[in-house]
Amino acid sequence: MTALPAESPRPTLLWYAVGLTLLLLAGLASLAFGALNLNPVRALSLLLHPGNSSDSLVVWTLRGPRTVAALLAGAALGVSGALLQGVTRNPLADPGILGVEAGAALALLATVVFLPGFSGLGVPLAFAGGLGAAGLTLAFASRTGLTPIRLALAGVAVAALCAALTRGIQLLWEERAQGAVFALAGSVAGRTWLQVGQAAPWIMAGLMAAFVLARRVNVLALGEDVARGLGVNTRRDTLLVSGLGVLLAAAAVSLTGPIGYVGLVVPHLTRGLLGRDHRLTLPLSALLGGALLTFADVAARLIDKPAETPVGILIAALGTPFFIALARRQRA
Fold first, then answer.
1. Are 295 and 28 in contact (CB under 8 A)?
2. Which of 23, 126, 130, 247 has the fewest CB atoms lying closer than 10 Å?
3. pLDDT of residue 266
C-alpha cells in the first residue's frame, strides 16, 4: 500500500529518542526559566511534589499550563504541516501559509464579538474558520493549475484578507474585541489549565487519528493516478486527511493564537532525517514541533526579561528565511 522502502529501525529509534529527549528538556526548561529562574532540579521536584511555596505556585499555576500549551500546540502544528504537505504533495504547504491559521483566528474573534455565548466552542468554531480559509485558498490556486508557488501565493492572499477582516472587527467593535486580543496574540503566556483542558482532547484525538491514517497519507503522496490504481478512494481520503490537518491547526490556534512556520519547518526536518514514510515522520513531527515551540517560548522570556517577546516573532525569524529559500528552490 505504501510503495515505500522499509526503513532501518535503528536510526528511526535513535531519532525518536533524540526527539523525546528534546521534548523533555524543553518542558523542563519551560518550568525552570523565566522572569524568575529556578534550578531545573528544584523545578522538577516541585512538579512532582507541589507545595504551598511561591516557587510551587509559579511552577504549577503559571508555567505548568503554559508549558503544556506550548508542547501540545507545537505538536499539533508540526503534524498538521506534515499532513497538508503530504496530501497536497506541496513542500510549501503550511497551516499559516495556506491561510488556515488566519481563518481560525478570524472565526474565534467573530465568536467573541458577535456570539459570546458560544465562546466555549473555540475549537469547532476555529475549525470551521480554518476550513473555510483553506477552501478559498485551494479554489483560487487551482483555477489556473495547482502548483506549489500558486498555492502559496493564494494562501498568502487569503491570510491577508482574513487578517484585514480581523483588524476591521477589532477597530469597529473595539470594546467587545478586547476579550479576544490576548487569545489571538500568538503566544502561550498567561494560558490556564482551563484553556489547556478545552483544547487538549481535540489535539490528542487529532494526533492519534493522524498516526492511524499515516498509511493513507503515504498513498496520497504518490499522486492521484497512482492512488486510484491502488484502489484508493482519493476524494474521500483527501478530504479526511486535509480536514484532520485543518482541525489540528485550528485547535492549536484556539490555544495559542496564530503562530506560523512551525508546520513548514518541522516536516522538512523530519523528512530529512527519516525519509518520506509518514508512519515514521508524523510521530517525530509531533515531538520536534512541541520541542521547537517550547524552546522558542523559553527564549522569548529570556531575551528581554522581565518583559517578554512574543514567541511568534522568534518563530517567524526562523521560518521566514527558510520559506524564502524553499520557494526559490521550488521556482527553480
1. no
2. 23
3. 94
- Round to whole Å and give the CA distance between 216 and 3: 11
Q: Give pTM, 2 decimals.
A: 0.88
Residue ranges for the chain with pLDDT beneath 50: 1-3, 5-6
What dotted CATH number matches 70-331? 1.10.3470.10
Nearest 5°: the CA angle 103, 104, 107 is 90
Q: What is the three-class DSSP state of 275?
A: coil
Residue 161's contacts (CB-CB under 8 Å, 6 or more residues apart) are none
pLDDT at residue 331 in the model: 58
Report d(CA 57, CA 172) in Å as an integer: 39
Cis peptide before 306 (omega within 30 of 0): yes
Crossing angle for the helix pair 122-141 and 100-114, nearest 10 degrees?
Answer: 140
Are 290 and 22 contacting, i.e. CB atoms less than 8 angstroms apart? no
Distances (CA, A) of 214 to 75, 101, 210, 279, 324: 16, 23, 6, 5, 28
Residue spans of the domains in the chain: they are 70-331
- Measured in whole angstroms, the distance separating CA 1 from the mean position of its chain's CA atoms is 28
List, for residues 225-238, the tens digit of each pLDDT value: 787 887 778 888 88
Nearest to 204 by CA among 319, 68, 312: 68
Q: How far is CA 313 from CA 259, 261, 270, 307, 308, in A?
A: 9, 11, 23, 14, 11
pLDDT at residue 236, rounded to an integer: 86
